[in-house]
Amino acid sequence: MSDRIPFRVHPMLATLVPKPFDKPNWIYEEKYDGCRILAYKEGSRVALVSRNGKDRTHTFSTVADAVRNLFADTLLLDGEVVAFDRHQVSHFQLLQQGNASPSYAVFDCLYCNTRDLRKAPLSERRAVLQNMIPNEGTIFISRQLSADGIRAYEEAKKEGYEGLVAKDLSSPYVEQRSSKWLKVKVHQEEEFVIAGYTAPAGTRVCFGALLLGAYSGKQLVFVGKVGTGFSMTTLRSLHRQFQPLVRKTPSLMDPPREAGLIHLTPKLIAQIAFEEWTVDRKLRQPVFLGLRDDKTPGECRLPETGP
């Protein structure tokens, strides 16, 4: 039996919907706040790959070891590498800062011992996981919430989860964004392009606030500034990374009108928590959580549904 998986995949993506719902033959899972990872096991070789194709095997070596120990010669899993706080709630910041041991929340199996499962219904793919993944440890099956979608949302809200992901149990695995996987957010958290920064003031060093943007079509639209969530180390690290990206003209189609702005080529992506969208499509009370390198700037889109 060959220990090679004969294909590589792009992850299936969930479509954001504005409110919770309940449908028959759907399941409702916790939405994790971590790093999406495809895990390829081919004999003793394991590769952990991010959603934009970057190798994360050494970054999450304990997860790779746990995948290697699973009882299957060939295996392709889809899931989220996460780090939990003491309340067992995942936070991207904890994962990025290395303040907690990473775990792998697995929610799909696409290949197992010569079986290509991509066209099989999700119910069958999850059954394969149930027979393979332990109930606890570094690897675990993603947590299911209530079978009722409305109650599942209330449960996610009560526990402090980022949100929930609803999935049609009859759906195959498709390598694109799908209406068969839908996500509902409890807490507002999103990725935005860093388009520039303001000069520091008072005792602040390096910069004052970041200019954030999101794409509408091919245009980068200004969505607000974020000036909180930075440690001294983060300020200095970001400032160093900004310098090769400095440009004379704005990348934003509608930059703020104020003096002293430093414009950047839109390469870096910030993870931002915020309270809500304002009527004029700006972020209310944004907080910087960290940089992301597992996504591309073009994936940072202005929501189609306004506030």
Please, could you describe this protein's structure?
The chain is of the alpha+beta class and 307 residues long. It contains five helices and 19 strands. It is 15% helix and 35% strand. The strands form four sheets. Strands 11, 12, 13, 14, 15, 16 and 19 form a seven-stranded antiparallel beta sheet that branches. Strands 3, 4, 5, 6, 7 and 8 form a six-stranded mixed beta sheet that branches. The mean pLDDT is 93.
Topology of helices and strands:
Layout: E1 13-16, E2 26-31, E3 35-42, E4 45-50, H1 61-68, E5 74-82, H2 92-97, E6 103-112, E7 115-116, H3 122-130, E8 139-141, H4 149-159, E9 163-168, E10 177-185, E11 189-197, E12 210-216, E13 219-226, H5 232-242, E14 246-247, E15 262-264, E16 269-273, E17 276-277, E18 283-284, E19 287-292
Parallel strand pairs: 1-10, 6-8
Antiparallel strand pairs: 2-9, 3-4, 3-5, 5-6, 6-7, 9-10, 11-12, 11-15, 11-16, 12-13, 14-15, 16-19, 17-18
| Tally of separate helices | 5
Largest sheet: 7 strands, antiparallel
Order of helices and strands: EEEEHEHEEHEHEEEEEHEEEEEE
- Contiguous uncertain segments of 5+ residues: none
The coarse overall form would be: globular
Write out key terms for the chains shown.
single chain; 307 residues; alpha+beta; 7-stranded antiparallel beta sheet; 6-stranded mixed beta sheet; 5 helices; 15% helix; globular
Can you give me a brief rundown of this structure?
By secondary structure, the chain is an alpha+beta fold.
